[in-house]
Amino acid sequence: MIPDYAQPFFYQVPWRSASVHTGEHLGIQRGPGDEFSRHVSLVDYPDARRVDLRQTIRDPYEQIQVRVFKQEASSPLYAVCDLSSSMQFQGQLRKLDTVQAVAASIACSAHDNSDLFGMISYDQHVIPHLSLSPGHHAHQSFATIAELGDFRSARRDGSGVVEAAGLLGQQKGLVFWISDFHMPLSLIEHGLNLMANHQLIPIVLWDPLEYQRLPRFGFGNLQDPETGEQKTIFFRQAIRAQFVQMFEQRKQALDQLFARFEIRPLYVSGRFEAALLSDYFEQLIH
User: Fold this and answer.
1) Which run of H or of E encompasses 194?
2) Comparing C-alpha atoms, which of 154, 200, 156, 197 is closest to residue 178?
3) Whether residue 205 has pLDDT greater than 80
4) What is the pTM of this model?
5) Which one of 110, 188, 201, 224 has the minimum C-beta count within 10 Å?
6) Bridge-partner residues for 223, per DSSP?
7) What is the mean pLDDT of residues 8-20?
Protein backbone atom coordinates (compact mmCIF):
# COMPACT_ATOMS: atom_id res chain seq x y z
CA MET A 1 0.00 0.00 0.00
CA ILE A 2 1.36 3.42 -0.97
CA PRO A 3 1.58 5.75 2.07
CA ASP A 4 -0.14 9.12 2.01
CA TYR A 5 3.16 11.01 2.17
CA ALA A 6 4.37 9.42 -1.10
CA GLN A 7 3.71 12.02 -3.81
CA PRO A 8 4.79 11.19 -7.38
CA PHE A 9 6.65 13.79 -9.42
CA PHE A 10 7.56 14.29 -13.08
CA TYR A 11 11.06 13.34 -14.18
CA GLN A 12 12.89 12.54 -17.38
CA VAL A 13 16.23 10.90 -18.08
CA PRO A 14 18.30 12.73 -20.74
CA TRP A 15 20.20 9.64 -21.92
CA ARG A 16 19.34 6.42 -23.72
CA SER A 17 18.94 3.58 -21.29
CA ALA A 18 20.98 0.43 -21.91
CA SER A 19 18.51 -1.70 -19.95
CA VAL A 20 16.99 -4.76 -21.61
CA HIS A 21 13.79 -4.28 -19.58
CA THR A 22 10.93 -2.31 -21.09
CA GLY A 23 10.01 1.02 -19.59
CA GLU A 24 9.16 4.62 -20.47
CA HIS A 25 12.54 6.00 -21.60
CA LEU A 26 14.46 6.01 -24.87
CA GLY A 27 16.64 2.92 -25.11
CA ILE A 28 19.43 1.47 -27.22
CA GLN A 29 18.17 -2.12 -27.42
CA ARG A 30 16.17 -3.21 -30.42
CA GLY A 31 12.73 -4.61 -29.82
CA PRO A 32 9.06 -3.59 -29.70
CA GLY A 33 8.76 0.18 -29.73
CA ASP A 34 7.74 3.22 -31.76
CA GLU A 35 11.19 4.65 -32.54
CA PHE A 36 12.48 3.49 -35.93
CA SER A 37 16.15 2.49 -35.92
CA ARG A 38 17.13 1.07 -39.32
CA HIS A 39 16.46 -1.59 -41.98
CA VAL A 40 18.17 -4.97 -41.84
CA SER A 41 17.73 -8.20 -43.79
CA LEU A 42 15.23 -10.79 -42.66
CA VAL A 43 18.14 -13.18 -42.15
CA ASP A 44 19.67 -10.85 -39.55
CA TYR A 45 16.36 -10.11 -37.84
CA PRO A 46 13.86 -12.92 -38.56
CA ASP A 47 10.60 -11.14 -37.78
CA ALA A 48 8.21 -11.39 -40.73
CA ARG A 49 5.76 -9.01 -39.05
CA ARG A 50 8.13 -6.13 -39.74
CA VAL A 51 8.81 -6.78 -43.43
CA ASP A 52 9.05 -3.51 -45.43
CA LEU A 53 7.90 -4.25 -48.98
CA ARG A 54 8.99 -0.90 -50.41
CA GLN A 55 12.49 -1.20 -48.99
CA THR A 56 12.65 -4.83 -50.18
CA ILE A 57 11.83 -3.81 -53.75
CA ARG A 58 14.51 -1.10 -53.64
CA ASP A 59 17.21 -3.37 -52.25
CA PRO A 60 19.86 -3.94 -54.97
CA TYR A 61 20.83 -7.27 -53.40
CA GLU A 62 17.20 -8.49 -53.51
CA GLN A 63 17.13 -9.32 -49.83
CA ILE A 64 13.94 -9.07 -47.82
CA GLN A 65 14.20 -6.01 -45.60
CA VAL A 66 12.57 -5.61 -42.20
CA ARG A 67 12.14 -2.54 -40.02
CA VAL A 68 14.01 -2.55 -36.69
CA PHE A 69 12.79 -0.40 -33.82
CA LYS A 70 14.30 0.58 -30.49
CA GLN A 71 12.31 -0.46 -27.48
CA GLU A 72 11.56 1.91 -24.65
CA ALA A 73 13.56 0.92 -21.59
CA SER A 74 13.59 1.28 -17.82
CA SER A 75 16.13 3.18 -15.72
CA PRO A 76 17.13 2.79 -12.06
CA LEU A 77 16.34 5.48 -9.48
CA TYR A 78 18.25 5.53 -6.19
CA ALA A 79 17.61 7.28 -2.90
CA VAL A 80 20.94 7.68 -1.09
CA CYS A 81 19.93 8.61 2.45
CA ASP A 82 22.23 10.28 4.97
CA LEU A 83 21.24 9.10 8.46
CA SER A 84 24.21 10.53 10.37
CA SER A 85 23.81 12.34 13.69
CA SER A 86 23.08 15.76 12.21
CA MET A 87 20.07 14.27 10.43
CA GLN A 88 18.45 13.64 13.83
CA PHE A 89 17.75 17.38 14.07
CA GLN A 90 14.18 18.37 14.79
CA GLY A 91 13.06 21.89 14.01
CA GLN A 92 9.74 22.63 12.36
CA LEU A 93 9.94 19.00 11.24
CA ARG A 94 12.24 16.08 11.90
CA LYS A 95 14.80 15.77 9.14
CA LEU A 96 14.30 12.00 9.17
CA ASP A 97 10.61 12.51 8.41
CA THR A 98 11.59 14.62 5.42
CA VAL A 99 14.05 11.95 4.25
CA GLN A 100 11.21 9.46 4.52
CA ALA A 101 8.87 11.64 2.46
CA VAL A 102 11.47 12.26 -0.26
CA ALA A 103 12.44 8.58 -0.51
CA ALA A 104 8.78 7.52 -0.68
CA SER A 105 8.11 10.01 -3.49
CA ILE A 106 11.09 8.68 -5.45
CA ALA A 107 9.88 5.12 -4.99
CA CYS A 108 6.32 6.04 -5.97
CA SER A 109 7.49 7.87 -9.10
CA ALA A 110 9.81 5.02 -10.11
CA HIS A 111 7.08 2.41 -9.79
CA ASP A 112 4.59 4.61 -11.70
CA ASN A 113 7.04 4.75 -14.62
CA SER A 114 8.02 1.06 -14.57
CA ASP A 115 11.52 1.99 -13.37
CA LEU A 116 13.61 0.25 -10.73
CA PHE A 117 13.90 1.76 -7.25
CA GLY A 118 16.89 1.23 -4.99
CA MET A 119 17.84 2.77 -1.65
CA ILE A 120 21.13 3.00 0.22
CA SER A 121 21.15 4.38 3.78
CA TYR A 122 24.32 5.21 5.67
CA ASP A 123 25.93 6.97 8.61
CA GLN A 124 29.56 5.99 9.23
CA HIS A 125 28.79 2.80 7.30
CA VAL A 126 26.05 1.53 5.02
CA ILE A 127 23.01 0.39 7.02
CA PRO A 128 21.97 -2.94 5.42
CA HIS A 129 18.44 -3.26 6.84
CA LEU A 130 17.59 0.21 5.52
CA SER A 131 18.98 -0.41 2.04
CA LEU A 132 17.44 -2.06 -1.02
CA SER A 133 18.82 -3.39 -4.28
CA PRO A 134 17.09 -1.90 -7.36
CA GLY A 135 13.83 -3.65 -8.09
CA HIS A 136 10.14 -3.38 -8.87
CA HIS A 137 8.95 -4.51 -5.43
CA ALA A 138 6.74 -1.63 -4.33
CA HIS A 139 5.55 -3.23 -1.08
CA GLN A 140 9.10 -3.95 0.09
CA SER A 141 10.22 -0.44 -0.89
CA PHE A 142 7.58 1.33 1.17
CA ALA A 143 7.97 -1.06 4.10
CA THR A 144 11.72 -0.31 4.29
CA ILE A 145 11.17 3.43 3.87
CA ALA A 146 8.68 3.35 6.76
CA GLU A 147 11.51 2.17 9.06
CA LEU A 148 13.60 5.30 8.40
CA GLY A 149 11.61 7.32 10.91
CA ASP A 150 12.56 4.99 13.78
CA PHE A 151 16.30 5.08 13.15
CA ARG A 152 18.59 6.65 15.77
CA SER A 153 22.26 7.45 15.30
CA ALA A 154 24.34 9.03 18.08
CA ARG A 155 27.69 10.72 17.40
CA ARG A 156 28.14 9.15 13.97
CA ASP A 157 29.30 11.11 10.95
CA GLY A 158 28.39 10.63 7.28
CA SER A 159 31.62 9.07 6.04
CA GLY A 160 29.66 5.97 4.98
CA VAL A 161 28.72 7.77 1.76
CA VAL A 162 31.97 6.42 0.27
CA GLU A 163 30.79 2.86 0.90
CA ALA A 164 27.28 3.74 -0.29
CA ALA A 165 28.54 5.11 -3.61
CA GLY A 166 30.30 1.82 -4.27
CA LEU A 167 26.97 -0.02 -4.09
CA LEU A 168 25.38 1.91 -6.95
CA GLY A 169 24.98 -0.25 -10.04
CA GLN A 170 27.02 0.19 -13.21
CA GLN A 171 23.92 1.06 -15.24
CA LYS A 172 23.45 4.83 -15.34
CA GLY A 173 20.57 6.05 -13.22
CA LEU A 174 19.10 8.97 -11.35
CA VAL A 175 20.67 9.25 -7.90
CA PHE A 176 18.97 11.43 -5.31
CA TRP A 177 21.49 12.18 -2.54
CA ILE A 178 19.36 13.24 0.45
CA SER A 179 21.37 14.96 3.18
CA ASP A 180 21.90 18.20 5.07
CA PHE A 181 25.51 18.08 3.78
CA HIS A 182 26.89 19.04 7.19
CA MET A 183 30.07 17.16 6.38
CA PRO A 184 33.53 18.21 5.18
CA LEU A 185 33.55 19.57 1.63
CA SER A 186 36.36 17.14 0.83
CA LEU A 187 34.07 14.20 1.71
CA ILE A 188 31.25 15.63 -0.40
CA GLU A 189 33.64 16.06 -3.32
CA HIS A 190 34.84 12.47 -2.92
CA GLY A 191 31.23 11.29 -3.01
CA LEU A 192 30.52 13.33 -6.13
CA ASN A 193 33.51 11.78 -7.90
CA LEU A 194 32.43 8.27 -6.93
CA MET A 195 28.90 8.87 -8.24
CA ALA A 196 29.96 10.66 -11.43
CA ASN A 197 28.69 7.83 -13.65
CA HIS A 198 25.12 8.73 -12.70
CA GLN A 199 22.95 11.81 -12.91
CA LEU A 200 23.07 13.17 -9.39
CA ILE A 201 20.45 15.33 -7.70
CA PRO A 202 21.61 16.57 -4.28
CA ILE A 203 18.61 17.31 -2.04
CA VAL A 204 19.83 19.61 0.74
CA LEU A 205 17.66 19.53 3.88
CA TRP A 206 18.01 22.63 6.04
CA ASP A 207 15.51 23.66 8.69
CA PRO A 208 14.84 27.36 9.40
CA LEU A 209 15.33 26.71 13.13
CA GLU A 210 18.95 25.73 12.43
CA TYR A 211 20.00 29.25 11.50
CA GLN A 212 17.15 31.67 10.70
CA ARG A 213 14.82 31.47 13.67
CA LEU A 214 17.32 31.56 16.50
CA PRO A 215 16.72 33.38 19.80
CA ARG A 216 17.46 37.10 19.57
CA PHE A 217 18.55 37.34 23.19
CA GLY A 218 18.92 34.68 25.86
CA PHE A 219 19.84 31.01 26.19
CA GLY A 220 19.07 28.53 23.44
CA ASN A 221 19.93 24.93 22.60
CA LEU A 222 21.72 24.00 19.40
CA GLN A 223 22.70 20.64 17.98
CA ASP A 224 26.27 20.22 16.77
CA PRO A 225 25.92 19.36 13.03
CA GLU A 226 28.67 16.72 13.08
CA THR A 227 28.36 15.01 16.47
CA GLY A 228 24.67 15.54 17.15
CA GLU A 229 25.47 16.82 20.66
CA GLN A 230 23.20 19.45 22.21
CA LYS A 231 24.93 22.69 23.24
CA THR A 232 23.52 25.59 25.24
CA ILE A 233 24.48 29.02 23.89
CA PHE A 234 23.72 32.50 25.16
CA PHE A 235 22.44 34.38 22.12
CA ARG A 236 22.69 38.05 21.37
CA GLN A 237 22.37 39.88 18.09
CA ALA A 238 26.03 39.46 17.08
CA ILE A 239 26.03 35.70 17.77
CA ARG A 240 22.77 35.26 15.88
CA ALA A 241 24.18 37.16 12.89
CA GLN A 242 27.24 34.91 12.90
CA PHE A 243 25.08 31.79 12.56
CA VAL A 244 23.12 33.28 9.66
CA GLN A 245 26.35 34.30 7.94
CA MET A 246 27.84 30.85 8.51
CA PHE A 247 24.96 29.16 6.70
CA GLU A 248 25.06 31.69 3.86
CA GLN A 249 28.76 30.99 3.39
CA ARG A 250 28.11 27.25 3.55
CA LYS A 251 25.46 27.50 0.85
CA GLN A 252 27.84 29.46 -1.35
CA ALA A 253 30.57 26.85 -0.86
CA LEU A 254 28.17 24.00 -1.66
CA ASP A 255 26.87 25.76 -4.78
CA GLN A 256 30.42 26.32 -6.02
CA LEU A 257 31.35 22.68 -5.41
CA PHE A 258 28.26 21.33 -7.17
CA ALA A 259 28.79 23.76 -10.06
CA ARG A 260 32.24 22.27 -10.67
CA PHE A 261 30.47 18.98 -11.38
CA GLU A 262 27.74 20.72 -13.43
CA ILE A 263 25.19 19.74 -10.81
CA ARG A 264 22.32 21.88 -9.55
CA PRO A 265 21.22 21.09 -5.98
CA LEU A 266 17.68 21.32 -4.65
CA TYR A 267 17.36 23.04 -1.27
CA VAL A 268 14.39 21.98 0.85
CA SER A 269 13.52 24.16 3.84
CA GLY A 270 10.53 22.97 5.79
CA ARG A 271 7.98 20.52 4.42
CA PHE A 272 8.84 18.59 1.26
CA GLU A 273 6.43 18.78 -1.67
CA ALA A 274 6.90 16.56 -4.73
CA ALA A 275 6.15 19.56 -6.96
CA LEU A 276 9.62 20.85 -6.04
CA LEU A 277 11.19 17.93 -7.91
CA SER A 278 8.77 18.27 -10.84
CA ASP A 279 9.83 21.91 -11.17
CA TYR A 280 13.48 20.89 -10.86
CA PHE A 281 13.24 18.53 -13.84
CA GLU A 282 11.14 20.97 -15.88
CA GLN A 283 13.91 23.56 -15.50
CA LEU A 284 16.54 21.02 -16.54
CA ILE A 285 14.66 20.37 -19.78
CA HIS A 286 14.24 24.06 -20.61
Assistant:
1) helix 185-194
2) 200
3) yes
4) 0.77
5) 224
6) 230
7) 70
